[in-house]
Design brief:
This protein is α+β, with helices and mostly antiparallel strands. The protein has 4 domains: 1-187, no CATH class; 189-352, Methylamine Dehydrogenase, Chain H; 400-469, no CATH class; 552-690, no CATH class. A hairpin with a 4-residue loop joins strand 19 and strand 20. The longest helix is centred in the last third of the chain and has 40 residues, at 538-577. The relative contact order is 0.04.
């Protein structure tokens, strides 16, 4: 808000002011006075917001976090389980305001100095974030040095401040840090005491429209236009649209915007729902020839207490609300000729978890699970002494619904539907077989269209089946082992020992032996409970081993099919982007020979492609060489390369190059490894290296 020395002097002046309206306001406001002296420290987070998928360097989400001391930062998951802060937006925005003398436009009249308490308050409120929300990914035009235009992905982050202003940040993707910030524009909303923010995104006749929905603690809700330059196919409103204007003192707690299709009007529409006190305010927005049609109303009689959290399933438009008494309501929108109505039913969490208090809910991306934050409720009319916060998961779909959705999915990416695959996984692990209807439906899909997505889905099912057939481990896999291999000192040659040492060693061995015996006993019990029934004779085990070998063979066959399909894609890229007898770093000849080595594999497309490539290579082989001994690395295995001296290098599953470096990447499920792109790599190889895992669709770290 100003130079450090001047700010410190002003704080001391306001704290010791004779006027109680100044001194008490200053001392009690944690925005001005974050240290708080006797007050508890400002630790933790006020709010967090996830970006859409595909915004960071790994193709995953960015996290915008607002701390209790009003600092807004953006974090990314660069390596597995490692989060890194990329940028501090509060600091950057503060520097911009300082350079502009705390004026939003050049036409603004200069205000008072920092010593004036009202100016001190104004400078704080204009950069104290209340909420922030990410937009969808949009495309911008970038002009290259040779005057060619290329499409560059970008994402917007809207930040709502205490004084009602909204800063719209534009970031170029992938977001890497401060250098990826394209622009920052400030919009004046004109709303007093803003409480919540949401993006309004609407598609009409292949034209995307966008705006910002802002709610107030006093009740009003309105949509603001957002004007952006150089955004391809982007449109906004001409003027603000008021959705609710009554100052009825019902604070807007949460806003969700859901795109839907209107079955009667035969066009797309936008449903905006907002939690206001114990009610749900809804507004249906529809663009017709007459202009923008707005229908709004309230749903009452849902909760006896104010709504503390609201979430929406964007797949089917279902809205979920909860109050602190452990009651969750499911609201299903049903279209009528004019607008719509809601059917709602009660979900009593007390029937599932006992007496609980709810603090928040969220629905998974494909609507398979509802996550609920709970603490213990009242017992015998008394509140619990301690609060233990837990995240509970409630399934919203059956296994059959999840399987059908996966088979008919337009996304065709297992990683993006991980909540649905989790339901399928649970069912197969429990029943120890793949249901017949799912197997038949999947085989039909593979025969009819042959998309690699269905092959990956088949691989996923076979792997889970193989896992369910295996004997359960006696120890918990994630728990670290603290046992060290100890021997008696007397057993060591040339070393003496005392009686105490011997007794101690013997007691350790005895305790370990008893633990082992206990573990063995537990192992037998676990095996009886978890694994398939096994007979005592050897003959009973043989069918199980044969079944496992059969599943293993099926897994290898599916993996080989997916590998060949990806090899064809890589060879296609090589053919399109290389000249005659050009040496690419990809082992092209080895991949061609590997594809043709199996006599049973007869793919006409692959044979034609390989014929063209070999003609282009003009009898050149361009083999890879071992970096340790300079020997040739033959292409005999898709997973690793072994030279004649026995040096083993792992192969990149995206380009089939040998990873001859100490660092490489792995996919999230540790299926495959990939090398890092190098500055010498052409653009098409870098594009190949950005792809997900060919077996499980997971991103690569």
């Amino acid at each position: 808000v100003g130079p450090k020395k001047e700010v410190a002097e002003c704080k001391e002046k306001f704290a010791s002011s004779v006027d109680p309206t100044v001194s008490q306001t200053f001392m009690l406001d944690r925005v001005f006075n974050p240290e708080g002296k006797s007050l508890p420290p400002m630790r933790g987070f006020k709010y967090s917001s996830w970006s859409p998928l595909g915004c960071d360097a790994n193709g995953r989400c960015l996290l915008a976090a607002l701390t209790m001391d009003n600092r807004l930062t953006i974090h990314t998951n660069l390596n597995r389980l490692q989060w890194v802060q990329l940028v501090d937006l509060t600091e950057i925005y503060g520097e911009r305001l300082y350079e502009a003398s705390y004026k939003l436009s050049k036409a603004d009249t200069p205000r008072g100095d920092l010593g004036d308490f009202s100016e001190f308050q104004r400078r704080h409120s204009m950069q104290t974030p209340v909420r922030m929300e990410w937009s969808g990914i949009c495309t911008t035009q970038q002009v290259k040095h040779n005057n060619e235009c290329r499409d560059v992905g970008s994402v917007l982050l809207a930040v709502l401040f205490e004084n009602g202003n909204i800063a719209v940040w534009q970031f170029q993707l992938p977001f890497l840090g401060k250098e990826s910030i394209t622009s920052c524009n400030t919009i004046e909303s004109g709303i007093n005491s803003p409480s919540v923010l949401s993006w309004w995104e609407y598609e009409h006749n292949n034209r995307k429209m966008s705006g910002l929905i802002v709610g107030s603690a006093f009740g009003p809700v309105k949509i603001l236009p957002v004007n952006l330059k150089a955004v391809k196919g982007y449109f906004t409103l001409r003027q603000p649209v008021v959705l609710w204007q009554e100052m009825d003192q019902l604070p807007v707690h949460s806003i969700k915007c859901i795109p839907l299709y209107h079955p009667y009007q035969k066009c797309s529409c936008s449903l905006v729902v907002a939690a206001r006190g114990a009610y749900v305010f809804w507004c249906l927005l529809l663009i017709s020839k007459a202009g923008l049609n707005v229908h709004n109303s309230h749903v009452t009689g849902l909760h006896s207490l104010p709504i503390v959290s609201m979430t929406a399933d964007k797949q089917n438009g279902t809205v979920y609300t909860c109050s602190s008494d452990g009651k969750v309501r499911q609201l299903i929108p049903i279209f009528t000729d004019v607008a719509l109505k809601f059917e709602h039913q009660l979900i009593k969490l007390s029937e599932v978890f006992g007496s609980v208090r709810t603090h928040g809910i969220a629905v998974s991306p494909c609507g398979a699970y509802l996550a609920v934050i709970t603490t213990e409720g009242m017992t015998n009319g008394l509140h619990p002494v301690n609060k233990n916060y837990q995240v509970q998961f409630v399934t919203l779909k059956t296994f059959e619904e999840a399987a059908a959705q996966l088979l008919e999915s337009s996304v065709q990416n297992l990683f993006r539907q991980v909540d649905l695959t989790d339901l399928v996984r649970w069912k197969i692990l429990k029943d120890k077989h793949i249901p017949q209807f799912l197997q038949e439906a999947l085989d039909k899909k593979i025969e009819s269209c042959g998309s690699t997505y269905f092959w990956r889905f088949k691989l996923f099912l076979l792997r889970i089946l193989y896992q369910s057939m295996q004997k359960a481990p006696s120890e918990v896999m994630w728990r670290p082992s603290h046992e060290d291999a100890k021997i008696l000192i007397s057993d060591s040659p040339g070393m003496g020992s005392t009686e105490d040492d011997q007794e101690e060693g013997t007691s350790k061995q005895a305790s370990k032996q008893s633990l082992c015996d206990t573990g063995k006993g537990m192992d037998i019990d676990d095996a009886a409970d978890d694994s398939l029934p096994q007979s005592s004779d050897i003959g009973g085990r043989e069918p199980m081993e044969e079944k496992l070998l059969e599943i293993q063979a099926q897994i290898e066959a599916v993996e080989m099919h997916l590998t060949r399909e990806h090899m064809k894609r890589v060879l296609g890229e090589v053919y399109l982007h290389t000249w005659i007898t050009e040496n690419t770093s990809i082992p092209t000849r080895g991949v061609c020979d590997f594809l043709m080595s199996d006599d049973g594999y007869d793919d006409r497309t692959a044979r034609v492609l390989i014929g063209h490539i070999l003609k282009k290579m003009n009898k050149q082989t361009f083999p890879e060489h071992c970096s340790l001994c300079k020997e040739i690395l033959p292409f005999t295995d898709r997973k690793q390369a072994v030279c004649s001296n026995g040096h083993i290098w792992l192969r990149c599953f995206l380009t089939y190059q040998s990873c001859q470096s100490l660092v490489y990447r792995r996919c999230l499920l540790h299926d495959s490894i990939a090398r890092h792109p190098t500055p010498e790599d052409p653009e098409w190889i870098k594009r190949l290296l950005q792809g997900p895992c060919t077996f499980c669709d997971s991103p690569v770290f």
